[in-house]
Design a protein that fits this description.
four-stranded antiparallel sheet; PduO/GlcC-like_sf; YBR137W-like; PduO/GlcC-like; 6 helices; Beta-Lactamase
Length: 165
């Protein structure tokens, strides 16, 4: 569930070098319908403020509109020398900072059901925080649901996260 995933992201950040250096992060999981499923900030520095939450909203909007992570869209546009406005991602509604990742269900292919996002440092670090947390969460859920001796189903879930952008 979203709360458990959010706590997993929070725990991973608290164990990171970023946190030990006194950095902060804003974390949110939001449904495509706009419902806040999880939100928290971690850290005692001034890294997380109202602007952080505005950035998260824009990153989530990007992931919902494109069906891809905000980091993938950021890198894809940069590699082609294009800007966000050229593909309908105008600022400030959309942001390309890299920490929003769409969450899809196998039987719901039209749109992601939710987006997990983090904002606090570099796009790549925020993206990695979310992706690694989702991967670890899926492994944990798979192990609990299937028993420890079922790597095949867990591997499929992890492979689908790794291939998602």
């Amino acid at each position: 569930d979203a709360y458990t995933l959010g706590q997993h992201i929070r725990k991973r950040f608290r164990a990171s070098q970023r946190h030990s250096k006194g950095r902060g992060v804003a974390i949110a999981i939001k449904s495509v319908a706009g419902h806040i499923l999880f939100a928290c900030s971690v850290g005692e520095s001034g890294d997380v403020n109202l602007e952080s939450w505005s950035c998260i909203e824009g990153m989530i909007a990007t992931a919902i509109k494109t069906g891809h992570s905000s980091y993938y869209i950021e890198r894809s546009l940069a590699s082609r020398g294009r800007n966000p406005e050229q593909i309908g991602l105008g600022f400030p509604e959309y942001r390309l900072d890299g920490g929003a990742f769409p969450i899809w269900l196998t039987n719901v292919t039209a749109t992601p059901v939710a987006v997990a996002a983090a904002y606090g440092e570099s796009s790549q670090e925020d993206h990695q925080l979310i992706v690694k947390s989702i991967r670890d969460y899926l492994i944990k859920v798979g192990d609990e649901a299937m028993g420890e001796g079922s790597p095949r189903s867990t591997h499929r879930r992890v492979a689908s996260v790794a291939s998602m952008r």
